[in-house]
Amino acid sequence: MFESPTTIQSSHSPHLRKPGGKAVFSDLGVGEPGNSVQEGYVFPLVLGEMKGANSPMHAAAIMPSPIFLWRFKVILFLIWGFTCCKIGWDSVMRMSADLRDLFLYEAFLYYNPLLLVTMMVWLWGVCLWVFSQSSVNYAKIFDLDQNHLTHREIWKCSIWMTIIVPTSMTAYLYLYSHGEVSLAASQPVILYVAVALVLVFPFDIFFLSSRYFLLRTLWRIALPLQPISFPDFFLADILTSMAKVFSDLERSVCRMVHRQVATIAWFEADSVCGSHSVGIPLVLVIPYIWRLMQCLRQYKDTKEKATLFNALKYSTAVPVIFLSALKYHVLPDSWTYIYRRLWLFSIVVNSLYSFYWDVTRDWDLSVFTRIFKFNKPSYCSNLLYGRQWVYFWVIGSNLILRCTWTYKLSAHLRHNYLTVFMVTALEMLRRFQWIFFRVENEWNKITKSGFQLPMTDIAREDEKLLGSTNHNV
């Protein structure tokens, strides 16, 4: 009637359920006095009898409705957002006009990486929601177990990030404008240290298995010493869109290490953390080198010539990055008549080559049919599925944003921080729509190879977890 002790003990494994989830059985040892499965269920019934027969009705009357709680959270979120904006704006306006732009540039530099990462987490949650509504089994594509984070958990993480990062930025603006320079300088440092500690925290909280999966994938990307899996090169492709995030992160850490936060010591362009530093192009090129090495590893394993052409695509980003950086290290005439022209030519080659590869290889337009066909038809699916304008929009916007993204790969075009932020955010949106059709194309390849997962099996994944003791992320 009941499961064996081995099965019951396996249900307590942290790999079987998300942190904070409810255990199937009591966490007390099986076989100890008063800890049987039957007693675990009888105890709350006894409490119910003590409270009286009408206690469920009283509980329902006391507990607010989910809609009320949701509206209450939204109101609190809006009040918090308005408060942060008001405090931040007042803090900026307190400063003199000549220091205001410099101050905002520095603030954006420190918080730009985490703001963009927060945006990407939100977009990834949207992707997972669309996949969960459609026939695309993303868990199979990424080789995830059934305990992986859903879009709801992803959105919870992004909500906390949306609260914490702007709050820290507001504190930085407020403290700096009120003369508390040392306290202002500590705000981005504390935030960066906290994020690093959360990522490497070894205990089973904050989604340990998912954090381990992310760190392991990043390690495999940095050192492609093993066959390349789909999650490996998928995440590496996303990192190429976040090259600006890596660059700003390097600049921020450099200034923190050299104690230049909330100072103007870094404003000298030729300083160790200045805008002319050779570290900027070196960090910008790292994601493309990683992806290039992955392609060479794939060619070693499969001998497919297409992987070499893919490697060539990533290599075209290298001259864009380094030719731009040369502006600060060559004579003005040499830049104007030689290197600038080479830089413009490399931009055209990189943009068109990348656009061609996106459309013909990553997406495969011949199967542009499934992603917006939801299992339960809705307004969204009716608006998007099978509509010709969707494909024109995706192709056209991808071409335009491929060209504008080279703006950010160019180190000598980094001074207008608002323009830089907008271009980077647009690149995130381009990558966001790229994800849909890249994952769809991979799912079509899997289904053509003979794999098929019935929808009834998907609905019963929770039942399968209880009978299995082998779970991998």
UniProtKB/TrEMBL annotation:
The keyword Membrane applies. Keywords: Membrane, Transmembrane, Transmembrane helix. This is SPX and EXS domain-containing protein 1 isoform X1. It holds the Pfam family EXS. InterPro entries: EXS_C. The chain crosses the membrane at residues 68-89, 109-131, 157-177, 189-209. Its main location: membrane.
